[in-house]
Amino acid sequence: MAVKGRGRAVYVCLALASGGLVQTARADDAAGGNTPALSPENQASGDEAVRHENRREEHIHVTARRLDQARAALQPAIGATQTNFSRKAIEANPGADNAPLNSILLQAPGVTQDSYGQIHIRGDHNNVQFRLDGVALPEGVNVFGQALMTRFAHSMSLTTGVLPAEYGFRQAGVIDIQTKNGVSDEGGTLSGYGGVRDYVQPSIQYGGHWGKWDGFITADAVHDRVGIENTTSSYNAIHDLSNQYHVLGHLRYTLRPETRFSLTAGLSNAWYQLPNNPGQQHQFATPLFRADNRPVQEDAPDSAHLDEHQQQITDFAILSWQEDHEKVSAQTSAILRYSSTRYSPDWLGDLVYNGIAQQAARSVFSSGVQSDVTWRVSRAHTVRGGVQAYGERAVSKSNSQVYPVDEEGTISSRTVTVHDSSGRTGALYGVYLQDEWRLTRSLVLNGGVRFDGVEEYVHAHQLSPRVSLVWTPWHGGRFHVGYARYLTPPPFETIGTTSLNRFADTSAAPANYQNDRVKAERDNYYDIGFIQQITRHWHVGLDAYWKQAKNLIDEGQFGAPVILTAYNYRRGRVRGVELTTDYSTGPLTLYGNLAVSRAMGKDINSAQWNFDTDDLQYMRNHWVHLDHDQLITASAGGSYAFFHRTDHPLQLSGTMIYGSGLRKDRETGDKTIPNGTHVPQYVTFNLGLVQTLKHEAWLGGHTMQLRLDVINLFDRRYMLRDGSGIGVGAPQYGLRRSVMGGVALSL
User: Fold this and answer.
1) 599 with 662: CB under 8 angstroms?
2) Residues with Cβ < 8 Å from 286, sequence gap 6 or more?
């Protein structure tokens, strides 16, 4: 840190007690000329004022850093597999803060790309937990787009495997975002970013600290024509406009060195056109009528000219109280979240192609509390415990236009309206206790137990033991092995509540009327892994996992609204192996990941009405691949900073993603095997180039960054979905080559 005095520069290095450097900077000498000379008395007084200011700044930074470390220690990843993304790593990814969050996470091992911006971790559909500064956010109903943006993050981590007992409810992966704050991210930045397909993304951020207060706020807007994946392999999608707005604010008050209060709040509002799939055949060619039953004189609409929209809103707030003392640390948080999805159909077009035109809306309001406590009993034992509890209210409404069908199967020449609405209030709760026991200097046993319950559409509870052993037999080498029992509640917001009988004898009648309740998933999870430091800069890791599931939860899209519906497989099994490596020295960073995974299910035993009768019969007697199962997933990347010792470094970075292909149906003669094969494999490359400029005369001491990014560098045409498979809607293709550029100026 440097503090500029009158006529001179003062240099200060702040160090932690461990000797680690907090921050070092150099300030240029103040310009001379008309700067008055200081008398010895005034100069001494000025020096004392600067030293006092330095001590105050040092106190602020050290206190904030210590409390941040204490908060992180409340929820360690002992025995689990964790991938960390530092601020440097985020900025090295092409697009950096302008890139969607899933593009960062796809660089972690075992993370698979899907349509609508979804990701799958270790063969699970969603089942992902998002945390902000260690506080879990309740789930929302958003399907595509992302309420949490990359620019919110100072750093983040992805934790998978055998999770310690403090993690419950969603356990395929825990994504913990350490939000930017007014101490670590002091100052402001104004940026503009954009490129092909009308892509425009302005943003602003500012952080600072004032006495015991510090705060940070960031906001951006996105306008583009690539809101959702293209339904064809063409360069531009038909009807794919998107407008999005995101805001995050973070305010903290440090009452004393041991006590801090914080408030984090954000909102996201996104509006999308749903891309059209041209060349589709009419499914219902009987006389067509508008929603008000006036006859249609013109021809039936082409599927390329439909006009469907969807809006997604998310608001959240977290109020936290943190205490850190010599033996005990704790954090208690109150959480609020509201999210909603609204789908507007093309009334005439949806009737022609689907036999139903449905205006649908879902919303979830959640409130809850999370409290975590760490007690450092002795050098050998650290005990942790806590509680999570949420109350939720889910509401589902729909208005549908359908054709009546008589007993002979003749479709009426008039439409009828079907109204359907439902609401449900439920609760989730969990409590845990665990002990980090250092058996020897090289051997740590982390054992605990967690009790979870769900009182929503289903009533279930479970006592879940967790145990992991971490052994460090030599310098740079670490083994871990563990077992966890998991209870995964069905996602409250995706449980279908349609009143099936209301659609009887209509063009939207289900294939069957079986609709068993979605059940909680119960798992036995095993994990074993090893990581070795080959040299000072090079690491290699290997990890294997196995999950046995009862009532495995999956989700799918059934119908035109892009709203997911949950269902269960009576039995499930997921297994895989991950290989990781990274190398970092000076301005060079390289990494690579390879994952092999297999996810299977058998016998759908809930929400059966969404499925074809033949598919249900086949899956009752055969194991099938889950629709998101991908055998091989790989990612790699690297960055190099030229002129990194100057004020004008030039950073070149690149990433690669490979996938062997998600599942689709396989046709064998007159039989269709659900998810029986996969779409073609693909590989894409992204490139980023960032030039940083800092010049006193040109920029007045400000810093400017010029950015150029190329997504899908070689313009590969690749398919994510072909429109077939269990719970799969329209086809989706990956983004074609996109050239983007931007400029950012520090304020």
Assistant:
1) no
2) 403, 411, 412, 413
Say how far apart CA 118 and CA 190 lie, in whole Å: 29
Q: What is the CA radius of gyration of the chain?
A: 28
Going by C-beta distance under 8 Å and a sequence separation of 6 or more, which residues neighbour residue 440?
none
* 3-state SS record for 514-550: CCCCCCCEEEEEEEEEEEEECCCCEEEEEEEEEEEEE
Both tokens of residue 223? 């306008």
What is the rounded distance in angstroms from the CA atom of residue 315 to the CA atom of residue 428? 20
The span from the CA of 150 to the CA of 396, in Å, is 30
Helices (H) and strands (E) in the chain, counts: 6, 38
Residues 6+ apart with CB under 8 A from 42: none
- Cβ contact 336:272 at 8 Å: no
Phi-psi region of 476 (alpha: psi -120 to 50; beta: other; left: phi over 0): left
Predicted TM-score (pTM) of the model is 0.88
Tens digits of per-residue pLDDT, 534-561?
A: 999 999 999 999 999 999 999 888 766 6
Q: CA 274 from chain center: how many Å?
A: 22
Alpha carbons 192 and 745: distance in angstroms, whole number? 9
Nearest CA to 77 out of 168, 180, 174, 179 is that of: 174
Backbone φ and ψ for 409, nearest 5 degrees, come out as 85, 10
Q: pLDDT digit string (tens) for 287-301? A: 445 445 554 544 567
Confidence (pLDDT) at 406 = 84
C-beta separation of 519 from 491 below 8 A:
no
Q: Structure tokens of 25? A: 């900077």
